[in-house]
Amino acid sequence: MDCAVEPFERVNSRKTTFVVLCLGTYVLASVFAALAIRAVEAHRLHFGVAVSILIVGFIPLFSILLWWCLAALSAREKAARRNEERLASMAAVVESSDDAIITKDLNGTITSWNAGAQRIFGYTATEVIGKPITILIPPNREDEEPNILSRLRRGERIDHYETIRRCKDGTLLDISLTVSPVRDSQGRVIGASKIARDITEVRRGRAALERSHEELEKHVAERTASLRQAIAQMEEFSYSVSHDLRAPVRAMRGYAEVILEDYGEALDATAREYVRRILNGSSRMEQLIHDVLTYTRLARSEVILKPTSLQKLVTEVIEQYPQMQPPAAEIEIRQPLQDVLAHEASLTQAVSNLLSNGVKFVAPGTKPKLQLWTEAHNGTVRLWIKDNGIGINPKYHHRLFGMFERVHESSSYQGTGIGLAIVRKAADKMGGRVGVESEGAGGSNFWIELAAAKKNHD
Amino acid sequence: MTELRSGILLVEDDPNDVFLMERAMSKAKIDLPIQVATNGEDAINYLSGQGKYADRAAHPLPRCIFLDLKMPFVDGFEVLEWLRVQPAIGDLNVVVLTSSPEDRDRERAQKLGVKGYIVKPPSPQILVEVLEKSIDGCSVSSTPVI
Predict the structure, then answer these.
(1) B103 contacts A255? CB cut-off 8 A
(2) CA proximity to B38, closest of B63, B91, B74, B5
(3) By the number of CB atoms within 10 A of the CB, which of A112, A228, A401, B96 ranks highest?
(4) Has the ipTM of the complex gone over 0.95?
(5) Is residue A283 less than 8 Å (CB to CB) from chain B?
(6) What is the pTM of this model?
(7) Which residues of chain A have pLDDT under 50?
(8) How far is CA B61 from CA A88, B16, B45, B144, in A?
(9) Could you give the 3-state DSSP secondary structure of residue A337?
(10) Does A263 contact chain B (CB < 8 Å)?
(11) From CA A193, how far away is CA A195, in angstroms rounded?
(12) Which residues pair with A103 in a beta bridge?
């Protein structure tokens, strides 16, 4: 505002200079004219001619002076008008601002008050100008003003200071304050401009956000708890299955065996066949329970991957099962099998299921022959298991790895339909994949793919 | 103090499993007297010579215990925990005989110092294997056998 006042004064002083100059020139011209007239009257012709030349000389000088002064005057007036317009527009900005814009002197007395201030605090300009700014400050925050004033005196600006102020009706508002020192033309701090923004809504929004965040956290905690409970119940369930559900099945199978062994000769062929069927049924039930338990145990187990030697693991699996060894079967391993990142127990389960299937599902009278090899590709290792079995019709491939899915008649081949589901679950848990290639005859090529223990870039 | 130990104590609540175990023993031709306790509490009474088991001549301390885990009143784990704090009984060979293939049961039992863990039903072959191992270890001397 200081800089806006200065050009005004300068324009006024120019005007005065111009008037003085005009008057001076006029007076001088008049004096010379009177002298010339007198000289002519006194017949001092030479003197009269000289004075006349002087007057004639004055006229262009006077004209130039007059033109220059007029031009300067109009330029100054234009500048002044522009300044006035600018001031008016600034005043309009201040007046139409949504924020309260208040000025005060260094004693804390209010010196100006815009419409925003009236809207936010409820006081009109006439009510508050000349009053101390402390009328806006709630009693418990009175020590804020001396602090603000002392910082202002040092020429400091206070930015986005969040506090509470009181309206005319006593309502307390959350506001954000920006206070800047106002200086005179010599640079001395003479007061302050204060911009106050009502952030009650922002605060409310922020509080609501925090509340909803807390609620969300609570929901998550509740869900997690209920999930944990569900897992615990699931564990309890499978625990009960492993302890309680097996007992009666075991009894059935046990007694059926006893009958066959101890009283088999006393029974006729039909009765023996029935007992054998009881024995088969209970064996199958036992196997089902065993497989379901294996599956659920795998599903809930924590799997930590470590570099694992497939070579060693496969060899150990084969050694464990006589039906995978000569003369029952031939398993050829194409050396070397590459190492993988795996959870040993899970991979052992998967490999033994795949190999068991390989030696089991062969045409009657055919000796199972399996070939194993690995292929490395893009950081993964794929273990292939090729068999000479009965093959799987491609239209059933998508169902093959599902739970309780069987794609052969149960009369021909024993199985629970869980073995390959276990293989897939094991692969999933280890971040791997499983698959099969088979035309439906001439054997199947099963594969399980896991991360390589060492990086490969084939 | 060392007492003469003989026979096997089978701690089992299911009479079917008792029958099948006795049969498996006889099929394995293991000729050791078998005493049966029908739950954990009964087993503790037997081992500490309480109540109907007060007569040590009729109910001697066994050379080996086959212990079921899930039983009413006092379960197998509680028996194992009780056994750990019975200096008077000293080292006893305990083999768990359970329906549970659960790893947590296996690990917990191993931590409590069992000598073997058999998932039911026991085959005569595995019984021979386990008994050969544990009965040798279950000498009257106090030398611990791992």
Answers:
(1) no
(2) B74
(3) B96
(4) no
(5) no
(6) 0.54
(7) 1-7
(8) 111, 24, 11, 17
(9) coil
(10) no
(11) 7
(12) A112, A193
